[in-house]
Design brief:
Layout (H helix, E strand, L loop, with lengths): L14 H4 L5 H20 L4 H8 L3 H8 L8 H10 L16 H6 L1
Helix pairs in contact: 2-5, 3-4
Length: 107
């Protein structure tokens, strides 16, 4: 059996940017919000049905969140779900200049 050497590339910690997603920052933020929703469900030991009863949000939406199927969700919708679960979201924004492809290639 022939073994191949694979190059290991360390990620930046921002998987959506590393994979070249068009709206990488939005996708990363949605993933963070979804993780917080899942933590709240686990902390309260809520099934998707119990979460539906408590919040009025469809059980199918909680299932989508648990399965990281976030395409249907906006950031504000995910924040609203967190609020309905009894938590609040605090957002801190840091704006930096985007690194251009040219400066990244020479770095």
């Amino acid at each position: 059996m022939k073994s191949e050497m694979l190059d290991v590339v360390r990620g930046s910690g921002h998987v959506f940017r590393d994979l070249g997603y068009k709206n990488a920052d939005v996708e990363q933020f949605k993933a963070i919000l979804a993780a917080e929703i899942i933590k709240a469900l686990d902390r309260e030991r809520l099934t998707v049905r119990a979460a539906q009863d408590r919040t009025g949000i469809a059980a199918a939406d909680f299932s989508r969140i648990r399965n990281a199927n976030l395409g249907r969700f906006t950031v504000d919708r995910l924040m609203s779900i967190i609020n309905r679960l009894g938590s609040r979201v605090e957002v801190r924004v840091r704006v930096r200049r985007a690194e251009t492809a040219q400066s990244a290639a020479t770095a």
